[in-house]
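INFO  loader      accepted 1 record
INFO  loader      residues=560
INFO  predictor   begin
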Amino acid sequence: MSSKKIIQKVIYGLLFAVIGWFILCFIIIPVVGVVREIFFKDGSFSFDVIKKLTSSGRVLSSLKNTYIMAACTIVTVSVVGIFQIMVTEYFKVRGSKFLDIIFHSPLIYGGISLVTGYNYIYSSNGFVTKMLLEVFPNMNSKWFTGFMGVLFVHSFSMTTYHILFVKTSFKRVDYSTIEACRSLGGSNVRAFFSVALPVIKPAIFSATVLLTLMALNSFAAPSVLGGKDFYMINSMILNLNSIGSRELAALLAFVLAITCIILLLVLKWFERRNNYVSVSKVPTKIRKMKIRNPILNVLVHAVAYALGIIYVLPILGILIFSFADIQTIVDQTFPTHFTLENYIRVFSQSTTLKPLLNSMKLSVLAVIIVMFICIASALAIHKKKSKVTLILELTLLIPWMLPATMLVVGMISTYSTANPLVFNVVLLGGFWLLPIAYAVTSIPSAMRLIKASLYNVNTAHEEAARSLGAGPIYTLLRVILPAMLPTAISVAAITFNGLLSEYTVSALLYSANNVPLGIVLRTPATNPDPFSAASTLVYIVILMGLSSVTLGLTQKYRSY
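INFO  predictor   done
INFO  writer      dumping tokens
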């Protein structure tokens, strides 16, 4: 064997040794740590923690609330999502293009920033509720707290998968089949439900699976809007961890993980038993149809515009109030005086700028880790089909199958003391555990996108490079990686954008010296300081701007 090949094998060996160490330390061991925390708290096997769970009314209530909320969310989001598709893609609705843009708002801000924005607008002190109280003085000013508040946010923020999957699928419906239904006497509404809807069932099913997982793992909404009495599993895990009941928090995370896995298996079984086939061979592009019933036409327009108002009010409200003075933010229903003071304060003072810089630094480090692991692993999986690469791929999907809180609780349990796996360093409370946890939770989605991009690499170019004497490393650097670069940049940008306001992992792992933006966005819900509220509005505007730019620049590559 030549020295060149020996060097290549050594490089590959070191590369995958590092990846293997990362997977072992921050994916597999934390899962084992959760099981150990639950059943081997004092070194011996015990079911005592299960007795604690069953005897705690608040913990059992959080389980009940989570499952009920998930079921209700599936119904409300499906109705809202399908209705949006009807009024933007199927029926002729005036202003549908503008409505379509508004309905895409969950893509430009989400998580804790979206929940904080909605809370600012619709809470008891929000300008929408204040205006409603002037018209309906007897209404409950705290309607946006508890179950109704969380369900409201879920219903209008979790339509992301309908926008990304179902809407794209609907555009492929064959218009000739709808015309055939109408020629047989069916109305436009009946044609939608009898012809178009069955064709897009696979996309609806996929969106429902992802939506259910999102609802079960909801964290920001119940944490901000739940109040003192309404908890879901993840918000209860945060509460238990804060009071030192780590084994009960681990058990709740374990129960949530088992729920998600069982749900995925059941839905996969259901999907295999139901085959959805579109019989059209030469599809005709869908054309919008007029609603002939005048009463139904007015009703559809009214509901569509009402939805548009619900979506656009938080964005406009946040943008307008971010330019208002502090007194206006505290006392007035709507600002009459505008200023740049809030923006100047955020960008000029270290105390307000530091959380944004912290999040940017943490997100950049997490993205570097994600891209290194995903590109190297995707190349190995794509080029060499073996048991080792299969295990590698399945292992990297673990963070997708398990809730983030379970992995984080496992990291807390494993790295709260010196651990030889990480060179006897106590990671909990330090800097590095947070970006690592960010990376772990981001790997599955990035991995899927990057792996898919490899199928677009022209193999003829690789063969040409080899025929000209290029080695594997040279071919990788000059042929394969440049072809992957557009998708890799897109994935890196979207991942970075999503991590800037990350809250679930941050709430469990941040330290006083390392406070990310997601924690600061949560502060106004617990801190009445008007300066904090004003800074939060500016942060959300910045995040929306970054998201809009990212989505615009990466639109070409999001079809992978």
